[in-house]
Amino acid sequence: MSKLRVFSLFIMLFALLAQAQAGKKFTFFTGIDGKLFYVFPQKMDKAEGCVAKSKLKYDVTTLSTTDSISFTAFIVTPQYVQFGTATLTFADGSSLTSEIELLFVKPKGSKKYVNRVRFWVNREEFDKIVASPTPLLFDYGSNCTFKFSQKKWDKISHELKDIFEIMDKMK
User: Fold this and answer.
1) The model's pTM
2) 44 near 148, Cβ under 8 Å?
3) How far apart are alpha carbons 61 and 26 in whole angstroms?
């Protein structure tokens, strides 16, 4: 078998493996500006004392031609909230702060507001996030912090590392 044929088979096998992985954890679309990668939604638990009405549901999106990673989240609150910044706190006490963009807020009944928010981090910051051995705390600055259990953080951080390795190879 020629080297070209072996190389072609290797590329096809890698593409099939990447697509199979993509079907479970993330998906991607090829567009004019490059490949858009979308990591399917995950949930974070509320920390004790959090005023939110439910767990935080978030997804992760990035475009192959940029160094920015978008975290978009649904946060259900008991009243209208003005979001300023999101803070991710690491085990060593250091933190990463990003401005929050409010995409929309929708009243749900008389005592709930569904907020769709987004914040951005660059790839270097993202790599620091997923490399953290201890679960992060996500605080949106309005009497509420969300967290991962250690077991869930181990699983999610490992999955995100794997997904982004696949994405890097597909760029």
Assistant:
1) 0.75
2) yes
3) 9
With b for 16 or more beta-carbon neighbours within 10 A and e for fewer, the 58-70 pattern comes to bbbbbbbeeeebb
CA 81 to CA 141: how far, in whole Å?
10
Question: Mind listing the pLDDT tens digit for each residue in 76-103?
Answer: 988 888 777 888 877 677 788 888 888 9
pLDDT tens digit string along 26-74?
A: 888 888 888 888 888 988 888 888 888 888 898 988 888 888 888 898 9
